[in-house]
Amino acid sequence: MDTFLRDINTLIYFKYILSLSLQGIKITQGSNEDELLLDTPFVKGKVTKYKNNVIEEEVISKDKEEVLFYIHFQMANMKHALDLLKEMIDCIYESYNEPIGKILLCCSGGMTTTLYAHNMQKLAKMEHLNYSIDACGFNLLYEIGEDYDVILLAPQVAYLLAEAKSHLSVKVEAIPTKYFARNDYHHALMYAIKLNEGEK
Q1: What number of other Cβ atoms are within 10 A of residue 45's Cβ?
Q2: For 14-93, where are the E strands, in sequence order?
Q3: Nearest to 93 by CA among 13, 38, 139
Q4: What is the pTM of this model?
Q5: Facing residues of 28 across strands?
Q6: CA geometry: angle 58, 35, 74, nearest 5 deg
């Protein structure tokens, strides 16, 4: 492809991206005409044009500033460019499936909290809350606890709260008995989410 056609295809490519209407993705012009920004609650994307019609596409997570997608290519033909754009957009939508918080429930043996966690997970899914909820017995807590954002101890082991807090660097609290004993999954879930967001 000669330089003139590359220029035209790159211009059309950028105008096409800017014209897209994608659910959950806000597309805007960047600081100049050679940059497009794609914004979502979880990730930010950028498409940048450099000299010789080299195009760079990247997706970065907002929470950890982790690069989730990066590619650069020279405009060769429109189909190739659109295929790469589709891969980038797929990556953005996949970020919606990543849990924004991991919650671990813990009781003496893990049996009671396994059922409780299962019901909290069902509720989170019904309410479109992107959280992962698991359960374990206290004997596994120090082994796996650091992999979670919030740990909630069941009332049966709440007396071990101070010990758990001294061994773990993540947020550890007890599930209020009024939520646990009544199978009030909604309030238990909201309690965990507030802890994850820094409230108490």
Answers
A1: 22
A2: 26-29, 35-39, 43-50, 54-61, 67-74
A3: 38
A4: 0.56
A5: 37
A6: 65
Dihedral, CA atoms, 20, 21, 25, 28, nearest 10 degrees? 50
How far, in Å, CA of 6 to CA of 10, rounded? 6
Distance CA 186, CA 59 (A): 34
Catalytic site positions: 107
**For residue 60, is pLDDT > 80?**
yes
Q: Which two tokens stand for residue 76?
A: 């060769």
Arithmetic mean of pLDDT, 90-114: 87
pLDDT reported for residue 97: 67
Residues 6+ apart with CB under 8 A from 157: 106, 107, 108, 138
Q: Whose structure tokens read 């919650």?
A: 103
